[in-house]
Design a protein that fits this description.
By secondary structure, this protein is of the alpha/beta class. It has a single domain, classed as TIM Barrel (Alpha-Beta Barrel), CATH 3.20.20. It is built from ten helices and eleven strands. The strands form two sheets. An eight-stranded mixed sheet has the order 2-3-6-7-8-9-10-11, with helices on one face. A three-stranded mixed sheet has the order 1-5-4, with no helix packed on it. About 35% of the residues are buried.
């Protein structure tokens, strides 16, 4: 892992996400090594030659770039983070996310924060101070063996569920991001059933294999799940209704069980 401390010129940037006005990324790069990561496109803008997942730039001045007083962000949605995880293991040392949260509280934004790390519970005291806060944990699978295959350097599934529970008990609005959904491997019903007591709502997204992601997925399937390779190729490279059918099933299940779910399927379009 190549680590570098840098100084950023700005930290709150306009968002292209559908549910956020602004995003904050305290770090450049990531340490999780998720095989499905869409954020590798960022290398086009960062100038790194190292493989995505093998470098992190630490924006050491990030908290200083947030204004002390401003009405600009009041009731505006700010999301941490869009192309990194705000709770990388480096956060234990640098505490950039914690310092950023402290600076954001008086600006009164609508805060959204999402992670794959149980380190988020460290900042429950700050999250509780936001009048409008939604804190989410990504859970891709309940099977920790599969989790180790597809996202090796993140908190265990049980630790994430425990973190979700602690935040909910602290009165914070919580959600679970089930994504990406791996065909035949992600049991989204099981994830919902094991977390529904601790989650106010769910967001679900299908596996995106665009760009270089398919090469990673194909290599993984060949090594770990060769019996699924042909099925994945059919889903992604032939005309079919697989994801439409999955989406209908999810909507029907959530409606029947009175579960608030928000589906972000792109169906390869």
């Amino acid at each position: 892992m190549i680590l570098k401390e840098i100084k950023a010129s700005s930290i709150i940037t306009k968002s292209n996400l559908p549910d956020a006005d602004y995003v904050i990324n305290p770090y450049v790069g990531c340490m999780h090594s998720c095989i499905y990561c869409y954020a590798s496109f960022m290398k086009r803008f960062t100038g790194h030659v190292e493989p995505w997942g093998q470098f992190v730039d630490v924006k050491i001045n990030a908290p200083d770039l947030i204004p002390e007083k401003s009405l600009k962000y009041k009731n505006k949605s700010i999301f941490l983070a869009s192309v990194t995880d705000p709770y990388l293991s480096l956060e234990r040392k640098y505490e950039l996310t914690r310092k950023i949260l402290k600076k954001l509280i008086p600006l009164e934004p609508k805060l959204g924060i999402q992670t794959k790390s149980n380190l988020i519970v460290r900042d429950i005291d700050l999250l509780k101070q936001f009048e409008n806060c939604e804190a989410g944990l990504t859970i891709t699978t309940i099977d920790d063996d599969i989790r180790k295959e597809v996202e090796p350097h993140v908190s265990s599934v049980s630790d994430r569920i425990t973190a979700l529970k602690e935040m909910r008990e602290a009165g914070i609005k919580t959600y679970v991001f089930i994504g990406p959904i791996f065909p035949f491997l992600t049991d989204w019903k099981d994830i919902i059933n094991k977390t529904k007591e601790y989650a106010d709502f769910y967001m679900l997204e299908n596996l995106n294999v665009k760009g270089n992601i398919w090469n990673n997925i194909k290599s993984w399937l060949q090594q770990k799940h060769p019996e699924l390779l042909e099925k994945y190729e059919k889903i992604y490279f032939t005309k079919n209704d697989y994801w439409n059918d999955v989406e209908k099933e999810i909507k029907g299940y959530c409606l029947e069980n009175k579960i608030d779910c928000r589906i972000y399927f792109h169906h390869g379009k």
